[in-house]
Design brief:
It is globular, with a radius of gyration of 18 Å. By secondary structure, the chain is an alpha+beta fold. The chain has two domains: about 80 residues, no CATH class; about 110 residues, no CATH class. The two termini are about 25 Å apart. A six-stranded antiparallel β-sheet has the order 6-7-5-4-8-9. A four-stranded antiparallel β-sheet has the order 10-3-11-12, with helices on one face. The protein has a two-stranded antiparallel sheet with strand order 1-2. It contains three helices and twelve strands, in the order ββαβββββαβββαββ. Helices cover about 20% and strands about 30% of the residues. It holds the Pfam family RLIG1. GO terms for molecular function: RNA ligase (ATP) activity. InterPro entries: RLIG1 (IPR041211). It comes from Kitasatospora viridis. This is ATP dependent DNA ligase-like protein.
């Protein structure tokens, strides 16, 4: 889990907002390269290769990391360290358990209507967005807690890639569906993000 750069530079007078200037290294987005996917508004979790679940955790400078913490990177500007903590000790553990229960029940229902047993291996190692009624005020408008695999995020057609058009697209997307914004994916692995709240 590396921090994804924001497509546009932050306003030095108001760090919550972006300017129209592209962040260095993100010019490929405005050049029309890569695809855009929906950025879901919940919290990031990870299933590792051994079957253990982790929750994304940010540790501020000078603060102690929680037990079992796996640091990934430290932001040189803010000094915050991004990493993973064991799901069992995360404040999101209860909602994650509910998401897994809902997932299992959905598979059971599918299996009861199928001639062959349902494939129960769809929760593969990788990162997911935990979404639902108790997360971030439920902008995704979910009735139950659930997991959305980032690798299977909805691909969105973005007709124009310039500041004003992207601003309008992201704000309309958030208003219509509760999406947090967009994540752009380049074929070589680079990514850039743009959130509705970047525009204040």
């Amino acid at each position: 889990m590396r921090k994804i750069p924001t497509l546009f530079r932050r306003d030095p007078e108001d760090r919550a907002r972006v300017t129209a200037e592209v962040n260095p290294g993100c010019e490929w987005v405005l050049a029309g390269e890569g695809v855009a996917t929906r950025k879901y508004d919940g919290t990031c979790v990870r299933l590792d290769e051994s079957g253990a679940w982790w929750a994304r955790r940010e540790v501020k400078p000078g603060k102690a990391a929680p037990a079992g913490y796996l640091p990934v990177e430290t932001d040189p500007v803010t000094g915050k360290t991004m990493g993973w903590e064991p799901m069992a000790q995360s404040p999101f553990a209860k909602f994650h358990a509910e998401a897994l229960q809902f997932h299992a029940e959905a598979l059971d229902a599918l299996e009861s209507h199928a001639e062959a047993p349902a494939d129960r291996s769809d929760l593969v190692p990788g990162t997911y967005e935990l979404v639902g009624p108790k997360l971030n005020g439920n902008p995704e408008r979910r009735t139950t807690h659930g997991l959305v695999r980032h690798a299977e995020a909805e691909v969105l057609p973005v007709p124009q890639r310039e500041h004003a058009a992207l601003r309008d697209f992201v704000l309309a997307l958030a208003a219509e569906s509760g999406a947090e914004g967009l994540v752009f994916h380049h074929p070589d692995g680079r990514m850039a993000k743009l959130k509705a709240r970047d525009f204040g």
